[in-house]
Amino acid sequence: MTFSSVATQAGTRPAPSYFRSKTLTAAFAFLFGYIGLHRFYLYGMRDKCGWAHIVGIVAGAIGFLLLATTERTSILGWVLAIPGAVSLLAAFLSAIVYGLRPDAKWDAQFNAHTGRESDSGRTVIFVVIFSLLFGAFLLMTGLALTFQTYFKGQVEAAKTRSQ
Fold first, then answer.
1. Which domain holds residue 74?
2. Which of 2, 21, 87, 105 has the fewest CB atoms lying closer than 10 Å?
3. Would you state the torsion angle of the CA atoms of residues 84, 136, 147, 58, taken in this order, to the nearest 10 degrees?
């Protein structure tokens, strides 16, 4: 029995047969993670989580457009914007997690059968720093806009009740 057949029987994914760069994976997650490119790079085109990123970001874009045209009053816009925000923030978080994983652990998971070892340098640290910077900025901005819209609606509702 080969490793891939044992791994498939156990319900886990088989190890990829070619070298996977930790730095490139973290960069893909940072730059194009919202469309799942890092997932497709690691696991191939059959990865369901990669496709979920695409569905989420498309729904989020539609939700964002609805919110922009209705001045953040569309309930459907809010519902559709949530998967897009989750996809975007999950991509930044993935870049941080992949970038901070030790090289030995990375190689054990993704490069066990290649015979090559990862040697991630400073570049991956810059990817992690920028992922943390942009991810935190987007999370705080999204929370601020959400709470502002909620409390503005509460104030307007209280004004209409008092009249």
1. 20-95+120-149
2. 2
3. -10
